[in-house]
Amino acid sequence: MRFDSHRVVITAAGRDFGRTLAIHLADLGAEVFLSARTLAAAEHVRDEIRGRGHQQVHAFACDLTDPASIRDFAADVTQRTDHIDVLINNGSRYLESPDLQSASDADVIDTIASGATGTVLTVKNFLPLLLNSDKPDVVTMVSACGTAGHHRSDAHEAFYAAKSAQTGFAEILSKRLRPQGVRVISLYPPDFDNPDPLSEEWETTPREAKNALTAQSLVECILFAVAQPRDCFIKAFHFEQV
């Protein structure tokens, strides 16, 4: 699969899975607009990608807890393109601890704001660019924590709340945007292995039935869903937890 004709926005791409997505989509020919909470983190990944020979990559700062920062991110991307084809909502602060009292009020607010409010406002601000595309997709990295009855994570209750909010938002968004041709795709992975995509470990990480889910498999799910004909709306990927 090649994505030479795709323009892709990725939030929280300064590290971890967002960085993995940015590198692989650029390798497949996509023009990538990546953000991180700090501009330096985004520029670092941009430079890594350009070092691989891909020049169509742009770096931006975006704090998903700050509405003005999200608006500025969308406005800056609008200055560089008249449309985007894929918006990947990857950003959401993880907060660990199965003890409600363990987190400060500020940590709770930041966690829910980045995952819930940040996702809603990112889609809201990028929707005009998506509607200018003939193949618009919204992809959201939710979590198994966003599924009803899930309890196997050590994440804090605030993280569960943020992920449940993303689930509800994606559900109604899919119904309301389908008449406009926008597909809404959500992924609900449990904890997964995310080796550095530029390391040898990327190729050697085991992917047998007994192993944990890998970032490689998640990337392939996203690529598969986005590459389908426009009559194929894959709403969600749910994964068995080892």
Automatic annotation (TrEMBL):
Molecular function, one GO term: oxidoreductase activity
Keyword list, A-Z: Oxidoreductase
This protein's record includes keyword Oxidoreductase: yes
Cellular component annotations (GO), alphabetically ordered: membrane
Pfam families: adh_short
UniProt keyword annotation of Chloroplast present: no
Family recorded in the similarity comment: Belongs to the short-chain dehydrogenases/reductases (SDR) family.
Name of the featured protein: SDR family oxidoreductase
